[in-house]
Amino acid sequence: MNTKDIIAQSTFSMLKGKIDDRILSSLKSMGFEKPTEIQAKILPHLLIGQDVIGTAKTGSGKTLAFLIPVIEKLVKLKFTPKHGVGCIIISPTRELALQTNEVLQKLLSEIDLSHQLITGGEKKCKETISLQKGVNIIVSTPGRLLDHLQNTEFNFKNLKCLILDEADKLLEAGFEKHIMGILNILPEKRQTALFSATMDNKVKNLAGLALKTSPVQISVQDKFQTTVAGLQQGYFICQMEERIPWLNKMLKKCKKLKVMVFFSSCKSVDFHYEFFKSQRKTSIISIHGKLSQSCRKEAYRKFVEAKKGVLFCTDVAARGLDIPSVDWIVQYDPPTDVKEYIHRVGRTARGLNNTGNAVILLRTEEEGFIDFLKTKNVFLDKYNFEKPSSDVLQMLQHLIENNGVMKILARKAYLSFLRCYKKHPMNKFFDINNIDLEAAAKAFGFLHRPHVDFLNIKKKRKHQENSNL
User: Fold this and answer.
1) Mean pLDDT on 112-139
2) Residue 445 has pLDDT above 50, yes or no
3) Looking at the chain, which terminus has fewer C-beta neighbours within 10 angstroms, N or C?
4) CA distance 341 to 319
5) How far apart are CA 184 and CA 127, in angstroms?
6) What is the separation of C-alpha 118 from the centre of its chain, rounded to a whole number of angstroms?
């Protein structure tokens, strides 16, 4: 029997006698009967205390892969508040930290281990009081954790486990200095696990610094397919002035489904949210990095619990979030790189045997991006949709002409859209120089293009290139 067959026949009940019965009971009540591939491969190593590097695509079940052994270890060691922190889990975003904490809370439903979510945007004094009382498991974002390690007196000398979740995203988000600061403060004698969707040189360097022993390296990446098998993904050539009508028709067709729509900026999310929430009867929710933490939490919870509806979002919702039963991913604006594309579409077709759909809108000049994706083992079909009615665009134009607030939102969204294009990392495909600014303005409901000083873009770029020599 080969490894895949063994994994296919594995169940969590087979761990009886190897982990605490209360953990098994919680897993059963949460509806988990069979481990995913990453869980089946990593659990044996983490349960015996080895350091691990786990590489797996988004949606593979990494959260349970590290939470189960963490809880088991602290239960065996009989941790109580007086022992202080036994495990720290570091996440790149508040949303992912919140989600991890919620899964942890369910796993601990029958177990008396204390835990604390620590993220920016919350009142620090409450976290300080909790830490000083004695917290066994911390789930945190890097900045706030480092702040507490440097400025709050609490007991972390008994730390047994450190988990770095979504390590590639931690580095991409600019948390390298924070992570290094955290590693310099924490006890070196500990078990460490690092999880990442991708493994580049930066992640390898971080692993070399964080993991003190020779780590076990586990990868469940498909060599021939970067995205999950149950994902049906494609692209649609949609010119700028047809984007709003297309999205309106798409949301109308998907009124009984669950849809995520990705935009390039917070201002674009705000603008489209304000317009479409008045046009569509379907529930529309928005989430982006400039909303308050309480608003982001509420939006996330609301969409998780929804059976149908739409989430307008930036890439703050692209990584790690386990939102059940998402039917469609719409990439209204392009991702910054291939990894971000993969993480966006990874919000659907999650778990075993699940399916989902994804579409990215491109202009004719951007179609080369599809061939580039092929070189990264991401294959998209070309979709054909019926030409949508322009009625909704005329409605938006009328609204902007007569509503000062919407006009301001539209202008901010238009400018931020152009700025994102101007600084796009893949300007070979997404080039501000070949955008029709008049057509782009129409996409935001303007009859006449707002003044933007983009006339010397090419010259400015050449000047910047020369100044960098």
Assistant:
1) 91
2) yes
3) C
4) 10
5) 22
6) 18
